[in-house]
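This section describes the prediction task in plain terms. A model, or a person checking by hand, is given the sequence of a single protein chain and must write out its three-dimensional structure as a string of tokens. No templates, partner chains or ligands are provided. The sample shown here is typical of the held-out split.
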Amino acid sequence: MTSARLSLLFACLGHALMHLFAAFYFIIVLSLERHWGLPYHQVVELWGLGSLLIGLAALPAGWLGDRWSAPGMMVVMFLGMGAASVFCGLVSGPRGMLLGLAGLGLFAAIYHPVGVAWVVRSATARGKALSINGIFGSVGVAAAGLVAGTLIELGGWRAAFIVPGLISLGSGLALWWLLWRGRIRDVPAVAETDADTSSRERVRAFLVLVLTMLLMGLIYQSTQAALPKLFSQRLHTGAWQVGLLVALVYAVAGVMQIVGGHLADRLPLKQVYLGGLLVQAPVLALVAHASGAPLVLAATMAAFLNAATLPAENLLIARFAPARHRSLAYGVKFVLAFSIAPVAVLLVARVEFLTGEFFWLFLPLAAVAVLGVLVATALPGGTTTRPALTLDSARA
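The expected answer:
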């Protein structure tokens, strides 16, 4: 019991830190462009390689976690993310920042394939443990803007990297000590029961979900990357205020995932999934046009709707994936979700460079949501069966 609780504690902490490290650069970049005298698009593109590695390194990280040690890989993750973040805080130019951010992405890639599986393997009440763990992922996204904005105001952009990096290093050392003392133990994975569906349905559902997850990942990653700069431009506020607003947007969206889970438990999964995708289109179109308070409200709704589809999406994956390949199926999801991030970062940078604004970012994203609806209609019908187990409900 003690091992299970400590494992959940460090898994939740790792989930929060991973998402914080994946999101806080979009606040820090607002300060870097002034200090380095470089245009926004050049500075934000430095995160492109790091965001790509979060996706590409997920499968080999999961392979190592299965064949070596899940908690051991978590120690590597904490120490690696911490060292890379501190390195970023000490660099003097773009080349060093590119290298540090690449390291940050490489080590952050460990979490989803390893950390979520670790929760499943070590928890005594898996459903409760996974729901708690999912909330901490949302907390990490929400805290990224507030933490980075506050640290920039208090100590400059270097502090925004170094302080979270030291916390991650300390967490890694604490986890290593508990493993060495035997307070935390690794446990083997337990096989689940296959869902009663035909091979043809599974292939069809997998292909459809691959496309919808790719499209929804593009919307999520593009929105996360652009929101700080969008708020800065249209609300005319500083880094701390922008960070606070971004934190509020994702905090509300994270908590409201409960609504999506409630609907997924009571309605056919296909209907819930389609409904969430469909409503995103007009909301994203509103973000393209809005300013002031309506912009904040529309951005919150867009983040909420994206998050609200996740419980249904995860249940659909678990419904159609064979139990012996379920972890691989979720690994594919996270590769898709994070590998699309460099495309999103490049898209945000190019649109801002060419237009100086984000109208032509969010309007096409509304069209992407419509395309997602059209693709999702091809999901097999009657997807109401609930598997015994679902995994992490955080897209990024």
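For orientation: Residues 190-195, 383-394 have pLDDT under 50 and may be disordered.
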